[in-house]
């Protein structure tokens, strides 16, 4: 079965550089979520999109921005990178909301960003 | 603000023993709770999803219970195997208005010894 695809899987950047992570949700999933997991930490919610519109925002720095495109893939753009941005970035997707029955989240393998 | 806690942080058992992993959350107004498995440096694999109206879910050797009023969930893994060694995370969703934003616990790192 198709899963959530993230690219690149690994990325090394210098401080103050820019990075872009891509996420391709499972077919028919219209909701995308981004999470950041620092070393030894639990995943922290960054931002989510539903039908190409931002639906919720978490602890995402102003240096980061994201969007969801017409084909439902999403990109997370990170500028002025800092050492503390080194983390595993997960994308997750879910089926359309069905009333109050919120759907299961399926996560990608993650993109590991290392900032030197 | 929702806080999720998992105890113990680490657990080591001999193969064949049953595993009991605990998760507690401070705000009982949840919409669902999801258990995940994470192998080192890897992604999150969904194990079980329990809607707030449910009390338990089962999948193979896995059984998860939910007591919303007391803010607790327990994941049982029967007859553990070395391949069950991983970190197990629980996460709660706190409302439709928030979409399905999940708040994660710190995880329980499990080691099953052959």
Number of helices of chain A: 0
Q: Looking at the chains present, what oligomeric state does this protein adopt?
A: heterodimer
Topology pattern of chain B, helix = H, strand = E: EEEEEEEEEEE
First-last Cα distance of chain B:
41 Å
Strand content of chain B: over 45%
Approximate shape of chain B: globular
Radius of gyration of chain A: 14 Å
pLDDT below 50 for ≥5 consecutive residues: which ranges of chain B? Answer: none
Number of strands of chain A: 11
Helix/sheet category of chain B: mainly beta
Total number of β-strand segments of chain B?
Answer: 11
The Rg value of chain B, from CA coordinates, equals 14 Å
Return the string of H and E elements of chain A. Answer: EEEEEEEEEEE
- Distance separating the two termini of chain A: 36 Å
Number of helices of chain B: 0
Sheet with the most strands of chain A?
Answer: 7 strands, mixed
Question: What would you note in describing this structure?
Answer:
The complex is a heterodimer of chains A (116) and B (114). Chain A has 116 residues and is mostly beta strands. Helix content of chain A is 0%, strand content 49%. Chain A has no helices and 11 strands. In chain A, strands 2, 4, 5, 6, 9, 10 and 11 form a 7-stranded mixed β-sheet that branches. In chain A, a hairpin with a 2-residue loop joins strand 5 and strand 6. Chain B starts with a strand and ends with a strand. In chain B, strands 2, 4, 5, 9, 10 and 11 form a 6-stranded mixed β-sheet that branches. A 5-stranded antiparallel β-sheet of chain B has the order 1-3-8-7-6, with no helix packed on it. Chain B contains no helices and 11 strands. Chain B is mostly beta strands and 114 residues long. The interface between A and B is medium-sized, with 29 and 26 residues.
